[in-house]
Amino acid sequence: MRNKIIVSRKNEQWEADIVDMQEFARSNKGFKYIVTIIDCFSKYAYAYPLKNKGANEVTNIFKKLFLEVCPEKLRTDRGKEFEN
């Protein structure tokens, strides 16, 4: 059973993960991963392609996004790419 997420407004909490799309890299200009970010309240989703999932690349995605909008909380699966 999944933990219930209770939020009452937009940008209160986001969930982020990385989708592995390596098998499609040849037909996607070398992009192997997709960073997915979902607002838990509105269900609005962001998706950003990556050629590799190193911490620097992932951090750059969040830096650019946070210039526009920033959540109160960000939840991830604690993968190594999210540790910095």
From TrEMBL:
Domain Integrase catalytic residue range list: 6-84
Molecular-function annotations in GO: nucleic acid binding
BP GO terms, sorted: DNA integration
SUPFAM superfamilies on file: Ribonuclease H-like
A Pfam family reported for this protein in Swiss-Prot or TrEMBL: rve
PANTHER family attached to this UniProt entry: CHROMO DOMAIN-CONTAINING PROTEIN (PTHR46585:SF1), INTEGRASE CORE DOMAIN CONTAINING PROTEIN (PTHR46585)
Name by which UniProt lists this protein: Integrase core domain-containing protein-like protein
Species the sequence originates in: Dinothrombium tinctorium
